[in-house]
Amino acid sequence: MGSLFRSEEMTLCQLFLQSEAAYACVSELGELGLVQFRDLNPDVNAFQRKFVNEVRRCDEMERKLRYLEKEIKKDGIPMLDTGENPEAPQPREMIDLEATFEKLENELREVNQNAEALKRNFLELTELKHILRKTQVFFDEAEHGGVVSQMADPSREEEQVTLLGEEGLRAGGQALKLGEEGNEKGDQVYKSVFIIFFQGDQLKTRVKKICEGFRATLYPCPEAPADRREMAMGVMTRIEDLNTVLGQTQDHRHRVLVAAAKNIKNWFIKVRKIKAIYHTLNLFNLDVTQKCLIAECWVPVLDIETIQLALRRGTERSGSSVPPILNRMETFEDPPTYNRTNKFTKGFQVLIDAYGVASYREMNPAPYTIITFPFLFAIMFGDTGHGLIMFLFGGWMVLKEKPLAAKKSDNEIWNIFFGGRYIIFLMGMFSMYTGLIYNDIFSKSLNIFGSNWLVNYDRSTIQHNKELQLNPNSTDYIDYPYPFGMDPVWQLAENKIIFQNSYKMKISIIFGVLHMLFGVMVGLWNHMYFKKRMNITCEFVPQIIFLCALFLYMVILMFVKWIKYGPKNDPIDGPGCAPSVLITFINMVLFKPSTKVGNCDPYMYGGQSGLQKFLVVVALLCVPWMLLAKPIMMMRNRRKQHYQLNNHGAENGDVEASMGALQQSGGVTQSGGHKEEEEDMTEVFIHQGIHTIEYVLGSVSHTASYLRLWALSLAHAQLSEVLWNMVMRNGLAREGWDGGIVLYAVFAFWAVLTVGILVLMEGLSAFLHTLRLHWVEFQSKFYTGLGYSFQPFSFEIILDAAQATTED
Amino acid sequence: MGASAIPVIAFTLLWGAVVFLGVALPLFVPKGPNRILQVLLVLTGFTCWLFWLCCYMAQMNPLIGPKLNSKIILVMAREWVSQKHRLDRRLDNSYCIWTD
What is the pLDDT of residues A503-531, one digit of tens each? Predict the structure, then answer.
């Protein structure tokens, strides 16, 4: 079982596949998803590859399926998603599939064409029906009104009834709403009916032209009322007939689509799998005899057995008798980085990979990040109430994981939250703990164990003073601290920030230094794993000494100060004499003696001055050690080898051979010429110089950078206090029945702001700062991140990607 | 030095147990992909314990006392003191009844 501490051991393999068995074997490997194939013909363009034809056929099938899917969606038929995962079909089944899709597509296109023609016909008839009805109304009115004499002029030749689009009509007329889906877009079009009376052929052509100009449809209008009635009757029967035919056509279309909808998801999966297989086969090399395909692939060493089993299954399925051959190959190439993650660790691995994929077999920071990330976040986000909201949200996503994952939303923000559900869950949990330690719940404190500060003032003192300070050097303070977290009295105190700043700054530095030390330690494991003894003695040891001598010492000073100086001690160890840790540290680095103020001893313990000087000197000595030791040792090694080489070469007269032997035994690359070597050396010097400067300056700036833990924590606490005082307090201050209503509204406002600003926005900002602390401050101590990630050939990944692109 | 033994022992034991569980996990559970879990338990135990410890030690020897508004002092005197001494007073009362 691979662990997450380092990426999997990978090996390059050569795979010989029988031509007949290749398809089935690759299909099995695709189901497994543990093999990354390399392109063996990178200079062959996509159109000249062996299986172009098959890929093209798959593309065509996919197009047909997409057409079907579009039609199904148009009719609103639900597509059955059984979630089953059919295997890639045999190559011969491809023809069946093609035939099925071809038939379906043709059928559908035909039905659609017929339906369109019928619809057009239907529309025309409907227009005619309405025209006849309107003209009938017109003639009826005319008969009653006595205009008939004029109308019934025997000299008229012909009547035409015209339908005009509404937009062509400006001069008035009867607007008639035709409740039909007139044009192709399915919009409704308003049309008007005109009756035009005219005489003579000349006028007739003119009228026709005008009508054409306005894009009107012309219909004949019989003269006699009886003819008109007959015509109307005829139209009605034809419309009815058309309606039945149209209904039947629609039914047929629906039946075809329903049948297709049951299978379409399966078909999509099958076609995509076939396409993926042929794409992969295109990466292979053809053997000279044309009987064998050769592939090269990266494979996790632990999974070789499983892969061989899969290959055997594939051979059996294809009925081939010759087993495939999987050969391990030696290579100088860097293998890909493959971290086997599960749903819990995946989110954290993504955070690490976003910075840079680990170099092959390098220590992976992800397992430590699982705790340190939520913890550092929680130091900044310490509030039990806000943490609880986050915890509940994360917990809900974790509990409802399966139904939520099945929904497959394409909302990007939701997907980010859902992908990081375990991170959110842990961040919420740790925030609740740090919130309890800070004793901060929506900016209020809990008094579980009873405050250890007591009020001993009498009534008159209290009444005469606006503000009073409790004295730690009296009975105001019970001698031992509040057992768990901050004493609740500090939340009420006016000087809360002074006290909390000193505390929070100290914990920021304490945790920061420990975090960095841990990073350097992880670097040690890296050096040990890669057997780089020189890196341990020339880099790790001075690095850790430097960090301990300066910054760990500062951390120890903080603890000493906490223990040694107390309110009830002698004045020399009392509050007045407590030296500032920061000033002490600065003086130490500058070799400045601490100045004595009054009776106070500027040093915390005897011999402090001497020890500090010693520590600084040691730390300073570490700098040239880091800078020079490694290049000098490399140079000396080389000279030694040269010496051996020269002696050896002189004896045998065969320099080349001995050099090759040395290369193999020593493992040091010899770049031949003297000049090249010198350039190589300067490069090493420059590299080491940069590395040293980065580390030394980095330790200082990174330590200071951890102060962001304090700054953000302070900002968060202050913001939540301001929100309570400015908003929630107004709701609570009112009494009576109307107070309830006001409180209701105020609470809603407060809750929205709490979730929106304090949890979401502050959470995001704390998240980003934590990310930075991990990427820069922690990982710079050991992480190279120059690898490239393992991208196995896996149907699962391919299908997911295809689905995501179609949904967009 | 103003530390009380009970909380120090209690919380050290509590988080120490988590760390111990992480270290000793292979004894209880058969071999498997437990090393991540071990790391998680040890780190959780250590960080949470240290965080509690820092807060405790920062308050062990307070160099300043809280500055309080007179109103808050009055409320504190009424609410918190009575809370702390309610038990004592109840004992006192029972004592009185008994002597009567």
Answer: 999 999 999 999 999 999 999 999 999 99
Task: Tell whether B5 and B54 lie within a shared domain.
Answer: yes
Shared domain for A379 and A324, answered yes or no, is: no
Q: How big is chain B by its Cα radius of gyration, in Å?
A: 22
Do B75 and B43 lie in a common domain?
Answer: no
Q: Cβ separation of B65 and A477 shorter than 8 Å?
A: yes
Q: Could you tell me the pLDDT band of residue A131, with boundaries at 50, 70 and 90?
A: confident
Provide the pLDDT for residue A2. 52
What is the 3-state secondary structure of chain B? CCCCHHHHHHHHHHHHHHHHHHHHHHHHCCCCCCHHHHHHHHHHHHHHHHHHHHHHHHHHCCCCCCEEEHHHHHHHHHHHHHHHHHHHHHHHHHHHHHHC
SS3 assignment, position A164:
strand
Q: Is the distance from CB of A409 to CB of A415 less than 8 angstroms?
A: yes
Domain assignment present for residue A375? The answer is yes
What pTM does this model have? Answer: 0.81
Q: Which 3 state secondary structure label does DSSP give A519?
A: helix
Give the number of beta-carbon pairs within 8 Å between A and B: 178
| Residue A654: φ, ψ to 5° | -135, 80
Task: Judge whether A567 lies within some domain.
Answer: yes
Average pLDDT over residues A325-354: 91
Q: How confident is the model at residue A648, as a pLDDT? A: 58
Residues 57-116 of A with CB under 8 A from B: none
Domain check: are A607 and A704 in the same one?
yes
Whether residues A322 and A368 share a domain: the answer is: no
Give the pLDDT score at A76: 85
Nearest-by-CA chain A residue for B31 = A1
Residues 570-629 of A with CB under 8 A from B: 575, 578
pLDDT of residue A187: 58
Judged against a pLDDT cut of 80, whether residue A198 lies above it is answered with no
- A211 vs A17: CA distance, rounded Å: 74
Which token pair is A608?
A: 């402090």
Domain total of chain A: 2
Q: Is A525 on the interface with B (CB under 8 A)?
A: no
Does residue A314 have a pLDDT over 50? yes
**Structural domain harbouring A437:** 363-448+484-644+681-781
Range of the domain at B90: 66-99
The reply to whether A320 and A368 lie within a common domain is: no
Report how far residue A170's alpha carbon sits from residue A511's, in angstroms, rounded to the nearest whole number: 82
A707 located within any domain: yes
> Per the structure, how many domains does chain B have?
2
Instruction: Please judge whether A455 and B83 are an interchain contact, meaning their C-beta atoms are less than 8 angstroms apart.
Output: no
Mark whether A566 and A700 lie in a shared domain. Answer: yes
Chain A CB contacts of B7 under 8 Å are: 483-484
What pLDDT score does A160 carry? 47
**Does residue A157 lie in a domain region?**
no
**Is the predicted ipTM greater than 0.90, yes or no?**
no
Confidence of residue A572 (pLDDT cuts 50, 70, 90): confident
- Listed residue (A724, A204, A679, A654) closest to A443, CA to CA: A724
